[in-house]
Amino acid sequence: MVIIHAAPELGEFLQNLRLGGRRIGFVPTMGALHDGHASLIRCAKRETDVVVLSIFVNPTQFNETADFTNYPKTTDADLNLARSEKVDVVFSPQVADVYGDEMRTEPTDYGSLTAAFEGESRPGHFDGVVSVVRRLFNIVRPDVAFFGEKDLQQLAVIRHLAKLEFPELEIFGCSLIRDDDGLALSSRNTRIPRDQRSHALELHKALLEVAEASKSSGSLQAAIDRNLTRLQRNEHIELEYFAAVDSKNFAVLQSEETSNQSFAIVAAVVAGVRLIDNCRL
Ligand code: PAF
Questions:
Q1: Which of 86, 99, 102, 118 has its CB surrounded by the most CB atoms within 10 Å?
Q2: What spacing in Å lies between the alpha carbon of 244 and ligand 1's midpoint?
Q3: Quick one: which H or E segment has residue 252?
Q4: Are 25 and 142 in contact (CB under 8 A)?
Q5: Cα(84)–Cα(25) distance, rounded to whole angstroms?
Q6: Whether residue 206 is found in the same domain as residue 261
Q7: How far, in Å, is the centroid of ligand 1 from the Cα of 9?
Q8: pLDDT digits 0-9 by tens, 115-160
Q9: What total of structural domains would you count in the chain?
Q10: Dihedral (CA of 98, 99, 105, 111) sign
Q11: Residue pair 143/25 in contact by the 8 Å Cβ criterion
């Protein structure tokens, strides 16, 4: 496994592989790697010839300084995981390698896709995500890039970015991975105290109940309303949103009818940790 810090060095390294006809797979991450990231890497290993994993905690996508400061940093463990998953190249840049002299973001307006839900709860978040992913795509120039369905809205935003600006690039969405108890894997989970975990699991339970209602003859809207009220009343949960949406544009579903793009989505703060989760309807 090669570890590269500077963009020009990475460009040169990958260009030689590209000229040899190898397909480049890219897994962008902010480190604090877990089994969810390992599954992205395995996906990339299956689909492409050379896997580049970036580890860069992007300061511009945190709308709260405390979230950035508290974001877990586990460099040695990350490199061990990357090595054991047979990553070919780790790209681990500094802020200046990605942003140059000025850490600037470009405003991104993809309509409801960037304005609703995560866009509303975290002002500026998608400006930061799109700005950094655009820069990383330009540095790595991958054939295929891999993102988790756990960040479902981010995946839709990045698909849109690729459609507009990187038409040759394939965006591959990989399934959300859960812990044995059902909690969606996230780098932030390590900050949830053990005795608060059951409250975090209420989010998944609510999603499952809505998914169940959408598959059976139960009313989807009634299930949304019931679970919304239950989550709002739980004093351990600071609910930000809970809704059924079309994952293509993140518009709220207007009828009981669902398609394979319909998802129930949730975001909440539990024990000071912001969690998001989703479930296909
Ligand atoms: O999903 C993440 O870890 C980040 O948002 C990403 C895509 C690496 C951009 O910083």
A1: 118
A2: 24
A3: strand 251-252
A4: yes
A5: 17
A6: yes
A7: 22
A8: 999 999 999 999 999 999 999 999 999 999 999 999 999 999 999 9
A9: 2
A10: negative
A11: yes
